[in-house]
Amino acid sequence: MGNVESGAKVHLSFEVNAEFVEVLADGCKTLLEVLREDVRLTGTKHGCELGECGACAVLVDGEPVLSCLVLAVECDGRRVTTVEGLQAGGRLHPLQDAFADLGASQCGYCTPGILVTAKALLDRNAAPTPDQIREALSGNLCRCTGYLQIVEAVERAAEQMRTAAAGAAGAGGTR
């Protein structure tokens, strides 16, 4: 993709939380800005805007990215998942339930970025160790907690997801 002049509008179409979205946005806007300002999904937070805190993390094609460092034009035609897209069928994702149950978020500002980053981890590793969880979340800063409840919540969600998958596999095999 060539250089985009500041103020030049570009047509973007991509999938956001399993819905097709089209926007006409300034070509120099970050994905964070387009998600919040043009798509009106405000769960993704402005943090440091330097790629150091992780508050703006979203998934692009299933991989965590810092949306403050990615131009929206780079996501044209791609699949983006924000914290709003974690729930399905009106039910919270097991990570969201575990975070609420264990008090893993205090002020909640960092929580959306942590949740989507943890989801990416659980999508590729159904049974991460505490060290693997800490490593995966090492780019997400939280100033309110000591991270203990966050790691415990990810462990609990992983266990619940494995139990649900085992139950679904068992139920699918019987007639």
Q: Tags for this entry?
A:
175 residues; alpha+beta; Ubiquitin-like (UB roll); DNA polymerase, domain 1; five-stranded mixed β-sheet; 5 helices; 36% helix
Could you explain how this protein is built, in words?
The chain has 175 residues and is an alpha+beta fold. The chain has two domains: 9-85, Beta-grasp domain (Ubiquitin-like (UB roll), Roll), CATH 3.10.20; 94-168, DNA polymerase, domain 1. It is built from five helices and five strands. Strands 2-1-5-3-4 form a five-stranded mixed sheet, with helices on both faces. The longest helix has 25 residues, at 148-172. The mean pLDDT is 93.
Could you give the count of β-strands? 5
Structural class: alpha+beta
Share of residues in strands: 15-25%
Helix content: 25-40%
Low-confidence stretches: none
Biggest sheet, open or closed, and with what strands and sense? 5 strands, mixed
Cα-atom radius of gyration: 17 Å
Instruction: Trace the largest sheet across and list its strands.
Output: 2-1-5-3-4
CATH fold node name of the largest domain: Ubiquitin-like (UB roll)
State the fourth-level CATH superfamily of the largest domain. Answer: Beta-grasp domain
Name of the level-1 CATH class of the largest domain:
Alpha Beta
Nearest-integer average pLDDT? 93
Architecture per CATH nomenclature, i.e. the level-2 architecture of the largest domain: Roll
Shape, per Cα inertia axes: globular
Overall number of structural domains:
2
**SSE ordering:** EEHEEEHHHH
Instruction: Please report the distance between the alpha carbons of the first and last residues.
Output: 53 Å
What count of helical segments does DSSP give? Answer: 5
